[in-house]
Amino acid sequence: MRVIQSVYGFAGVLGLILAGGFTVSAQDVPDVGPHPPQPMRAMESHIGNVTGHAKDGKMNFRRYCAGCHGDLGDGNGENAQWIDPKPRDFTIATFKCRSTPTGTLPTDQDLYNSIGRGFTNSNMPIWNTFSPQQRADLVAYIKTFSARWEKEKAGDVIKIPPEPPVTLESIAHGKALFTKLECWKCHGPQGKGDGPSASTLTDSKDQPIRPYNFADGRDDSRFKCGSTNQDIYKIFMTGVDGTPMPSFADVIQPNDAWDLVHFLRTLQIHRHSKENEVLAAAHGVIPPYVEKQENNPAPAAQPENKPPSSGGH
Amino acid sequence: MRVWAQSRLVQKLLRGTSATIAVFTLVLFVASTSQPASAFPAFARKYGLRCSACHESWPMLNYFGQKFKDNGYQLMNDRDAPIWQNPGYWPVAFRFTPFWSRESTNKVQVDTGEGTSGLQRITTTGFNYGGLDILSGGTLEKNISFLFVPSSDELGAFHFESANVRFNNLLHSPWLNVKVGKFELDSFISEKRTLTLSGAGGGYQLFHFVPVGDGNIFAQLGDNQLGVEWMGHSMDDRTRISAAVFSSTDGNPDVGYGQNSYSAFFAASHAFSAGKLGVQRIGGYALIGQAATSFLTQNGGDPIPGSGTGNKSFSRVGFEALFYLGPKLDVQVFTQHGSDNAWFGACYGDVFDTGCNNTDGVLPDGARNPTWNGAFVETHFVWNPQFTIIQRSEWVRMSQQAFADTPSNLGNIDTYVFGYRYNPFMTSRAGFAFHNEFSWFRQRGGAPDGTDLSTNSLMAGFDFVF
């Protein structure tokens, strides 16, 4: 009887193990073998009065883009291994340059602009030789790589208030914010991209990434997502998704962001700008920022985590 | 080497020496398979872009490739300077073309017996290869670029097809670019980048046309020239404009026959979007210049280099256009009105050709400026970036002969080309194409007996660059 019980017991345990094993196996084993080709999503893009069609963008994607972004849009083209930073993976639909809040999809116009603008300090050229139709078709085709575009809508475009005048005070406030928000930890005290955290930064795919070096900026300098003050403002407020650059939309007020823009322009010491003119008129010295009396009766001191110095050199 | 060899051969052919005719098509074909200043995998390697990013079908540039060239081989993404490259990067590429061909000429003068001769068709088949092009180019520093192209004929005799340095975006303006050295003239329809390779149809006749009996050897549109060029373009390259001044030596250094005289080339074009059809480009060009028509001689008739006198003028003007009819079909149109001074038309100027080298300094009675008109239409059907079907029809018509009693159609040319080009793979490391082409060429009055000369070529080969 004991033997029978032992046999039943053993069989039960074995059954459980095998059942569990099969369950685990069924969960772990990938769906191997060839898959039938997926039909292309009938995606469209809308840029002004131009409508882009994915099917019309496919050939140009293959001709111009697939070498880096891959035929599947996964950022694994044959050149990807040689490129730094790595090409965008369209299958996860995370985009750096948007006019929409962080975490949301960009507008078609954002993607359209990115293609035509290119990305400075990367291998992404300025594809402004395309016609508007060709670019719109490419935007539509890029959207076929991720199902997010079928499930979600693009985020709401952020509002950019008019830029206030550049003043020494706004630059000083921007400098205080640069310190307070710890921008210098990545971008460096002089904006050279050499902050203490710079060497540790990685993007969302664990690829090393470098913070922007403001100090190299010349008259023809560009940022990743544009070249105007409005573009810099937008970068603060939307963040650069997929990178360590966060959105500050919940942290700073619009006027604060403009002050930060004005200060950052002074870090571009070789660039002719209104900000540098204002700074030059002050003999290159940014005074300590003092909170306005009505906002804060106590004079604002420099933040505790003050870097060695920043700007105005 | 191809272009110069072709222009010389064409001239000799037109003067009707049977020996030259006999080898015309074969030699012309061999020479024409060398296409210097073409596709450049070194750029693709540098930037990690496929050939198709810059080439409609290599070596023909698309708009992006044209902009890259106009920017001085720069993408303008702040990674153009060599300092950004892996130290092991070497900006050099090689192009070579082995092929089989069949060449046939309808009327070649052959010996038929003692002291007699007749005309006969000669057909030649066989394996061959073109010359070698060594392409080196890129940036020396941001906004300073260079192009250096040693090129050999099929026997290994080298010359420098291109050797120039370019200063780009001076004063931070894309409208201010200056190139110095030996360079291709700035026609956006480029013979150096033509998709045709065969003997009778590889080159553009209008880029080298010289009327029968004309001695103007000094400035051919299709030959790279020695001089200086200013070029400007809009940021998106939609508008392009250039002006070049160069010695009237047809790009040959250390020759005296064209020194002390200069030519100039002007080009302008504008591209515009036509909705679903694509981006269209239209433009015009003008080559005007002057060159010597007589020389002092020594040793009983040898021209003394640099002693040219009696500068006379010549011009080549026309329109060019590139029309896209949707994503897969484009049409190039090129026109020309050419004119040479009567002295050239009376066979003055060509110091090399003893068969057509007037030196007595007297303009024959009734001599007048030879003029002509011509055009070609070249169509590309890009089935996909790897497979392109090519067709070209070209016509040259004399509108005025140098002498009134010359048959009005003498020297008129018709050329038709049809072929395809297939790239089995497409990467940023090398270009490899299977090329198959048939071409037919006819020149009125070009045969030794004064009747029409026609040749045809069939070629199949592998064109590769790495």
CATH architecture name of the largest domain in chain A: Orthogonal Bundle
Helix content of chain B: 10-25%
- Overall shape of chain B: it is globular
Number of domains of chain B: 1
Q: Spatial order of the strands in the main sheet of chain A?
A: 1-2
- Give the total of beta strands of chain B: 22
The CATH homologous superfamily of the largest domain in chain A is termed Cytochrome c-like domain
User: How can the largest sheet of chain A be summarized?
Assistant: 2 strands, antiparallel
Main sheet of chain B?
16 strands, antiparallel, barrel
SSE blueprint:
The complex is a heterodimer of chains A (313) and B (466).
Chain A: H1 2-28, E1 44-47, E2 50-53, H2 54-69, H3 108-117, H4 132-142, H5 148-151, H6 168-180, H7 184-187, H8 229-238, H9 254-267, H10 274-281
Antiparallel strand pairs in A: 1-2
Chain B: H1 2-14, H2 18-32, H3 41-47, H4 51-54, E1 55-57, E2 60-61, H5 63-70, E3 92-96, E4 98-113, E5 116-129, E6 133-141, E7 144-152, E8 158-167, E9 177-183, E10 225-233, E11 239-247, E12 262-273, E13 279-291, E14 297-298, E15 302-303, E16 312-324, E17 329-340, H6 342-345, E18 371-384, E19 387-400, E20 413-422, E21 431-443, E22 453-465
Antiparallel strand pairs in B: 1-2, 3-6, 3-22, 4-5, 4-22, 6-7, 7-8, 8-9, 9-10, 10-11, 11-12, 12-13, 13-16, 14-15, 16-17, 17-18, 18-19, 19-20, 20-21, 21-22
Descriptive overview:
The complex is a heterodimer of chains A (313) and B (466). With 313 residues, chain A is mainly α. Chain A has two domains: 44-151, Cytochrome Bc1 Complex, Chain D, domain 2 (Orthogonal Bundle); 168-281, Cytochrome c-like domain (Cytochrome Bc1 Complex, Chain D, domain 2), CATH 1.10.760.10. Chain A is 37% helix and 3% strand. Chain A has ten helices and two strands. Chain A has helices at 2-28, 54-69, 108-117, 132-142, 148-151, 168-180, 184-187, 229-238, 254-267, 274-281, and strands at 44-47, 50-53. Chain A is globular. Mean pLDDT of chain A is 85; it is low at 20-24 and 296-306. Chain B has 466 residues and is mainly β. Chain B has a single domain (2-465), classed as Porin (Beta Barrel). Helix content of chain B is 11%, strand content 45%. Chain B is built from six helices and 22 strands. Chain B has helices spanning 2-14, 18-32, 41-47, 51-54, 63-70, 342-345; strands spanning 55-57, 60-61, 92-96, 98-113, 116-129, 133-141, 144-152, 158-167, 177-183, 225-233, 239-247, 262-273, 279-291, 297-298, 302-303, 312-324, 329-340, 371-384, 387-400, 413-422, 431-443, 453-465. Chain B has a 16-stranded antiparallel beta barrel with strand order 3-6-7-8-9-10-11-12-13-16-17-18-19-20-21-22. A two-stranded antiparallel ribbon of chain B has the order 1-2. In chain B, a hairpin with an 8-residue loop joins β20 (413-422) and β21 (431-443). In chain B, α1 (2-14) runs antiparallel to α2 (18-32). The longest helix of chain B has 15 residues, at 18-32. Classes of the chains: A mainly alpha (313), B mainly beta (466).
